[in-house]
Specification:
Helices cover 71% and strands 4% of the residues. It is mostly helical. A two-stranded antiparallel sheet has the order 1-4. It has a two-stranded antiparallel sheet with strand order 2-3. The longest helix has 29 residues, at 45-73.
């Protein structure tokens, strides 16, 4: 479900711009650090996370306005935008690790185990795990309702299908893209806060590997499909755990990419992705 929370952000941006935002993992780390910073200043934990969600959304919005919007204005290739997001990712990551900002050392994040663990036979489930599971499902439901039941969601779907036609119909495409990036950044902050609360640690590079594996989960489920992100996250996470248990912990990280390659070979559009038709 941790992968699912991050994968939803990838799918949101890809669904509108057909762009993989590789800065998403670093924005997740930024969100976690913002929650950590506000908490150390004496702000209650859940309020600190709420403030972090807003700031991470604004950061994602700023990334688009400062770096990606000018590229779109000049009709740059998507590969140019993709490389730009990789660069932005390293800028955010290394800014967080600057000595006078947060430093490169790991910091202790407050635990999200807010109530006793649930024990069923030999199975023990921590409250932070239950919280992560429920938040991922609630976030999926909210985003699905926004996309399918609101005026903004209609504008998002119109922009996804045909940006030029959406503009001709009076859709403010720039506002739609800004909203999408904000929502992606907000979901990244939620994921970062929950993951940090589960492991009780935060560090600048925390979004690198988990961000890549969440991207793999998004592709496995069918990138651009919100519920596919959740299913993809579950598939990748469960296969990782089984591999670590029966093969060895050293194969845990590569297993996400093994699954990714297998899915791309068998079903290139992912489990729930649909084959697109492009008119030329």
């Amino acid at each position: 479900m941790a992968y699912a929370l991050i994968a939803v952000g990838y799918s949101l941006v890809f669904g509108i711009l057909r762009l993989i935002n590789f800065a998403h993992g670093s924005i997740m780390a930024f969100g976690a650090y913002m929650a950590f910073m506000f908490y150390t200043l004496g702000v209650p934990l859940f309020l600190a996370i709420l403030l972090a969600i807003i700031l991470a959304g604004l950061l994602a919005y700023s990334v688009d306005k400062i770096t990606l919007a000018p590229l779109r204005k000049h009709n740059a290739d998507l590969i140019t935008s993709l490389i730009t997001t990789v660069g932005v990712s390293f800028i955010i990551q290394n800014t967080l690790s600057v000595q006078y900002v947060f430093g490169s050392e790991r910091q202790v994040f407050p635990s999200l185990n807010l109530f006793p663990s649930l024990t069923i036979g030999k199975l023990t489930i921590q409250s932070s795990q239950i919280l992560m599971f429920l938040v991922a499902l609630i976030l999926l439901v909210i985003l699905t309702l926004v996309v399918n039941k609101t005026k903004m969601g209609l504008a998002m779907r119109a922009t996804e299908q045909n940006t030029k036609a959406a503009r001709l119909m009076g859709v403010n495409v720039n506002r739609v893209i800004a909203f999408t990036f904000f929502m992606g950044g907000a979901s990244a902050a939620i994921a970062g806060s929950l993951i940090s609360g589960y492991y009780q640690v935060v560090y600048p590079t925390m979004g690198y590997m988990i961000g890549l594996k969440a991207f793999a989960a998004a592709v496995v489920g069918g990138i651009g499909i919100l519920y596919g992100s959740v299913v993809g996250g579950l598939v990748v996470g469960i296969v990782e755990c089984l591999a670590a248990q029966y093969i060895g912990s050293n194969v845990r990280d590569p297993m996400a990419f093994v699954i990714l390659i297998l899915i791309l070979i068998i079903k290139p559009n992912g489990l729930f992705g649909k084959k697109g038709i492009t008119k030329v």
